[in-house]
Amino acid sequence: MIPYKNAMLGLVLGALLIPGSPVWAGSPEKDPKFQKNHPRQTEVLKRTDRERARINNLYKEGKISAQERDRLQSEAKSVRQEDFADAKANSKTGTVRGGYITKDQQRVMNQQENQLNQQIRQDAGK
Q1: How many Å apart are CA 91 and CA 101, to the nearest integer?
Q2: Who is most buried in 17, 57, 86, 94, counting CB within 10 A?
Q3: Burial 98-113 (b: 16+ CB within 10 A, else e)
Q4: What per-residue string of b and e applies to 51-65 under the rule 16 or more CB within 10 Å gives b?
Q5: In Å, how far are 22, 25, 46 from 19, measured between CA atoms?
Q6: Any idea which of 63-67, 74-78, 95-99, 117-121 has the lowest mean pLDDT?
Q7: Taking residues 96-124, what's their average pLDDT?
Q8: Which burial class, exposed, middle or buried, applies to 97 when counting CB atoms under 10 A from its CB (0-12, 13-18, 19+)?
Q9: Contact assessment for residue 116 and residue 79, using Cβ atoms and an 8 Å cutoff
């Protein structure tokens, strides 16, 4: 059992120490360099994360059903996917981290998030 644990620990530590694979690799909005270089995108992604957490809390409190939670989470996920697609399309390297979103794209995503917030309030108010 101990050699297995040591091997797993080595793999995890090795992955963390490899250049270009930071701990926040799955969440660009948590990367300080990304936040500095992509403030519009960071704002949209953090807002989406807050909405997803809010949806989960409403479900845990029993204010929305599992079906409503899934529908709202799906809508939040689509905003995040749109953000990544726009950033990738605007990237010189063809990656999300190398891209950005324009002010117009940010405005559209903020409108979508406003609609999602309205739906969340309506579903929670039932």
Answers
A1: 9
A2: 86
A3: ebbbeeebbebbeebb
A4: bbebbeebbeeeebe
A5: 7, 11, 25
A6: 95-99
A7: 87
A8: middle
A9: yes
Q: Are 113 and 47 in contact (CB under 8 A)?
A: yes
Go through the chain and tell me how many residues it has.
126
Alpha helices in 31-101 (DSSP H): 32-37, 39-60, 66-89
Cβ distance 65 to 75 under 8 Å? no
pLDDT at 23 exceeding the cut of 80: no
Cβ neighbours of residue 9 closer than 8 Å, sequence gap 6 or more: none
How far does Cα 76 stand from its chain's mean position?
9
Nearest of 63, 59, 51 to residue 125 by alpha carbon: 63
* Residue carrying structure tokens 């996920």: 77
The tally of CA atoms less than 13 A away on the side-chain side of residue 56 is 7
Query: For 68-107, how does the pLDDT look when each residue is reduced to its tens digit (9 = 90+)?
Result: 999 999 999 999 898 888 888 888 877 766 678 888 988 9
Q: Specify the pTM.
A: 0.68
List the chain domain ranges. Answer: 24-124
